[in-house]
Amino acid sequence: MPEQISVLVVDDEPVIRAGLSAILDSQADITVAGTANDGEEAVEMCARLRPDVLVMDIRMPRRDGLWALAELGRRGLLGPGRSRALMLTTFDLDAYVDDALAAGASGFLLKNSSYEELGAAVRAAAAGHSALSPAVTRRIIEGHLGGRRRPSDQELARLRDLTQREVDVLRLIRDGLSNAEIAERLVVSLHTVKTHVSRVLTKTGCQSRAQAAVLARNTLS
Question: Which pLDDT band holds residue 143 (cuts at 50, 70, 90)?
């Protein structure tokens, strides 16, 4: 995680943009590099500023946050070594959570989250971890995001190059285990787990552990 975390705040409401920017700028280790008022502007500013984290609303006019996530992924601007996306919304709806995580978001928080939760989520996203509210995490682990469905051929193809051990690691990511917990479960070193997780993300094309968890939930028994 960088010593100083640069953030791009994206929201169509000026008051919300200003409030989020003020909260984040008040943190000693976080700097707001810029703001955007919709998904299209967010993509263009992300390409120019290369922030560590985008704090982005889901619902916005013209181009929303889900469109922005897809476009950022298409342009290679999202994921390890690039920008991370932390999604905020007032709507605690399963469909938004599922779509955002499947598109590569590193986290998902409600706008009524505390100042402390917001700062912690930005730091977690910058460090490459999933940043999810407890309620969202619980629903992912329990598999209640829209219910179990038949995996698509494209989803199954993303698992094709995984070794059996990497499949085991992906399944444990889906179940919400941390790297330390995976190491204990598989009786291997933490370094080994980190290597496996990195390979799983690379081989599946996932940009975050949360996206990998959604893929695993849809494809693995």
Answer: low
Residue 59 is encoded by which pair of tokens?
């619902």
**Contact of 197 with 169, CB cutoff 8 Å:** yes
Q: Residues 124-150: what's their mean pLDDT?
A: 65
Q: How far apart are the C-alpha atoms of 126 and 199, rounded to whole Å? A: 19
Q: What is the CA radius of gyration of the chain?
A: 17
Beta carbons within 10 angstroms of residue 191's beta carbon: 10
- Supply the pLDDT for residue 114: 85
Looking at residue 81, its pLDDT comes to: 86
Grouping H, G, I as helix, E, B as strand and the rest as coil, residue 101 is helix
Tokens of 72: 């950022």
Give the residues across from 37 on adjacent strands.
Answer: none
Rounded Cα–Cα distance for residues 111 and 13 (Å): 12
Could you give the CA distance from residue 167 to residue 98 in angstroms, rounded to a whole number?
21
pTM of the model as a whole = 0.70
**Do 45 and 37 touch, CB atoms closer than 8 A?**
no
- What residues pair up with 109 in beta bridges, in sequence order? 88
DSSP string, 123-160: HHHHTT--EE-HHHHHHHHHT-SS---PPPHHHHHTTT
Which residues make Cβ contacts (< 8 Å) with residue 98, sequence separation at least 6? Answer: 145, 146, 214
The arrangement of strands across the sheet holding 107-110 comes to 30-36, 5-10, 53-57, 84-89, 107-110, 131-132
Instruction: Give the C-alpha distances (Å, rounded to integers) separating 31 from 44, 85, 124, 166, 171.
Output: 19, 15, 15, 36, 36
